[in-house]
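Quick one - first record:
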Amino acid sequence: MASKKQPYYILLLLILAGEAVFILPFVLARVFRPTVLEVFNLTNWQLGICFSIYGIVALLSYLFGGPLADRFEPRKLMSLSLLATAAGGMYYATFPDYFGLKLLYGYWGFTTIFLFWAAMIKATRIWGGNNRQGRAFGFLDGGRGLVGASFGLIGVIVFAFLLPEEVGTANMGERTEAFKQVIWVSTAIIAATGIAVYFLLKPQGEQVSDKNLHQTIGKKEIRQVLKLPAVWLLMVIILCAYTGYKTTDVFSLYATDVMLMNEVDAAKVGTFLLYIRPVTGVLIGFLADWTRGALLLVWGFIIMLIGSVVFASGFFGPSTVLFFFLGLLVTAIGVYAARVLYFAVLREGNIPLALTGTAVGLISVIGYTPDIFAGPAMGYLLDASPGETGHQHVFWMLAGFSVIGLLAAIRFQRISKKND
């Protein structure tokens, strides 16, 4: 695997690129969900359908993009992905209708996954070497969280600056124009990141092409990967953990529907949530290098289960703001801990480095299906039972997935011990 001399600026580039590529399709909708619904004239269900279309395209992109990452340099694949995603932002800023938005999310499902995802995971695994897998993926996910939070904060500042001092008095035109500027700033940052990756990720790319690339990926290699029990368990683990991550999309809406906050304060809640991610990622990453990542994965699901049950109980309201943030913190720690670890344990699962891209692609086909069903499911639950009741139903759904993920993580931990 990679030597300990791998420079940290490579990891910083991976962190920046790893979150920048998802700003337009996901981060903005997470931080500004009430605003997105309003300016695009969408229901929760319709926004969920957009996410679902993204997920369907991404599903095929994971499958075919995985082997691609075992053949070509990460910098070339990732750079092209970022530039193509930024091009979609130019169309997003025109505020297309519902049909156009569905086409755009399908396009983003291809640009953000086919060339990008497996290449980023493989490059990160190589950077981590034999002894820094937890640190590598902890910094990657935690750093991505910090980047996402920073983008969210920048977006909130731009949005608030362009609105009247009394946010509630802003008309539709003012809200739309303010959000358009947020889109343009995000698009410019993504494009600049794509250019930086192409020119500055060269050392990592050269090392990958020297030693860690398969010239061909065929049925034999795919069968080899599918014979590994860890691969199948990681499919289930990622599916459940990623459902938890998708659920964080509704926290800003929860702030308006249940906590009765205005749009700017709700966006601040979404941004606060993003800042929990880097702290959790870094701490969990270091802990994973000192102990077993598989064990920490089990605890991540336990914490996620506790947080989801508390939210599902309907405990929070406008008079319990402090407890709301405490519950948000607990749930987010569980979600982000599981998210950090599910690729950090590839080595514990005895998955060969040279087939990392193929394994990641196959695992992701099942693991990231929440991109297809989570958005519509949450949208249906929220629209069918407006207000607090709908949110309770969403968190009961999360509790169910937490239990399934916990059982799979316990099984994975037992298998990883046998691989020692």
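second record:
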Amino acid sequence: MKIAVPSNDGVNISAHFGRSKGFIVFETLGNQISSQEYAENTVTGHATGQHNDNDHHHGDPGNHTHSHAGILGALSACETVIAGGMGQRLYNDLVAANKNVYVTREENAEKAVLLYMKEELDNNPDVCCRH
């Protein structure tokens, strides 16, 4: 199984999915991490300069210019996404793409993946827009 975790430093979970500098993709086998790879974020609107902090509307259902196609494509091989926070629209789009989505308070990415595999990771989807 592949698990994607947004991260600014390759170690800790980013507090905002779209603003993260990159993503750690963990590959698991059984209850162990078999490999991990860090990839730079070149797909979200924040990373590509399409959005700034003052001019976007994640929660506006009428705003269809904010597409998540790039991130959905980049994470297509991942079954699970673990993040510290994300916009409600991205959360909904990931769920619609059949991803297991966890919004956690855990800060360390590897620890979060290990807790997820033991079914002990906290999940707080009600705090989606945590920044």
